């Protein structure tokens, strides 16, 4: 069986980045284990990992119509957990030392590091995962894709960072201290980092998928939005004021609602475009009116996969649905960004070939 066109061979740079990031994340965790001791590390790691399955499922559910390659998602997560964490700690400590040498006290330097340096540095490093994926720009063909990749980088960063925070709380107040902090970071505000960095994801995705003259301005604007949200939360936390924390939380939740609305609207637009573009392929015999209805809602797609599994065609149905979705996305990219007709024809025929290979009902 030939690989479908959407199963591209991973680049060496991507694989190297994934390995390096993973090694750095493991080194950071090993240092935490040595410095905090086995008991504290185990408690902290369990608390940091506990919400991850739910959070990952929530993020990935945003992109059910056109799932991103698993290796690209793993790279974004590992980049956030490894490279971004290591470099963020290093640059933030360096910046704080510069403030101390300039004559500011240690307390001022720490507050500056928390409220100013950390948001500026961390968001730049987490967001750089999306810039690195620009070489695979074909994978970012919608705003939802930018949100998903950014969220994965944010989740990776938060997972490792939380181990460190819980370990510090464990060292000061034992298990109860770690659990109290977990309530704040793991239950009340578990999506902080993903939401912040998703502002950058929106900017990068908009720049890649639109043809407006000022589209690339969306990247720095997204970065500023991420820094603002991050600094707002950190600054509110340093005040110790529940009122300020409440305001920051509401602003972040408003940003989260905005992200969800963007993904829902984009999903509806994609489904609507399927009804526009796919009927044009009826003469090929690869698309029928029943197929268009099946592809046009998530519930119908799920029901079709369930039926296909029952008759031994589960993988074929999944491949057909993904190829049909990618074909629709190809039309959307051509509509939004323009595309060389020869390249369009090559990609279109590849998706039609995948649909023909999969369609056996």
TrEMBL record:
The keyword Lyase does not apply. One of its GO terms (biological process) is proteolysis. It comes from the Bacteria. InterPro entries: PrsW. Keywords: Hydrolase, Membrane, Metalloprotease, Protease, Transmembrane, Transmembrane helix. The chain crosses the membrane at residues 12-34, 40-62, 74-94, 114-134, 146-171, 191-209, 216-236, 242-265. Signal peptide: none annotated. GO terms for molecular function: metallopeptidase activity. The keyword Glycosyltransferase does not apply. This is PrsW family intramembrane metalloprotease. It comes from Nonomuraea turkmeniaca. The lineage of its organism: Bacteria, Bacillati, Actinomycetota, Actinomycetes, Streptosporangiales.
């Amino acid at each position: 069986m030939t690989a479908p066109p959407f199963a591209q061979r991973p680049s060496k740079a991507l694989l190297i980045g994934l390995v390096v990031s993973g090694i750095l994340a493991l080194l950071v965790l090993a240092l935490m284990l040595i410095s905090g001791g086995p008991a504290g590390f185990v408690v902290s790691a369990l608390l940091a990992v506990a919400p991850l399955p739910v959070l990952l499922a929530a993020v990935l559910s945003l992109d059910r119509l056109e799932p991103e390659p698993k290796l690209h998602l793993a790279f974004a997560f590992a980049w956030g957990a490894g490279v971004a964490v290591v470099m963020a700690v290093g640059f933030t400590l360096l910046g704080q030392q510069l403030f101390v040498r300039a004559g500011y006290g240690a307390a001022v330097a720490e507050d500056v590091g928390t409220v100013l340096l950390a948001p500026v540095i961390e968001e730049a490093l987490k967001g750089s995962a999306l810039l690195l994926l620009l070489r695979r720009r074909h994978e970012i063909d919608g705003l939802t894709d930018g949100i998903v990749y950014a969220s994965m980088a944010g989740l990776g960063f938060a997972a490792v960072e939380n181990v460190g925070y819980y370990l510090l709380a464990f060292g000061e107040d034992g298990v109860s201290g770690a659990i109290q902090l977990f309530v704040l970071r793991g239950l009340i505000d578990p999506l902080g980092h993903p939401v912040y960095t998703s502002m950058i994801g929106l900017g990068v995705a908009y720049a890649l998928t639109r043809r407006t003259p000022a589209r690339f301005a969306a990247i720095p604007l997204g970065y500023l939005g991420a820094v603002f949200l991050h600094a707002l939360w950190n600054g509110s936390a340093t005040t110790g004021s529940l009122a300020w924390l409440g305001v920051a939380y509401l602003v972040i939740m408003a940003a989260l609602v905005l992200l969800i609305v963007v993904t829902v609207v984009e999903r509806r637009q994609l489904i609507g475009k399927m009804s526009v573009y796919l009927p044009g392929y009826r003469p090929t015999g690869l698309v029928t009116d029943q197929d268009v209805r099946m592809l046009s809602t998530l519930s119908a797609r799920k029901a079709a996969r369930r039926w296909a599994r029952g008759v031994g065609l589960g993988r074929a149905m999944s491949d057909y649905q993904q190829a049909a979705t990618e074909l629709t996305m190809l039309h959307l990219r051509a509509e939004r960004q323009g595309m060389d007709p020869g390249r369009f024809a090559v990609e279109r025929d590849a998706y039609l070939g995948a649909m023909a290979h999969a369609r056996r009902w």
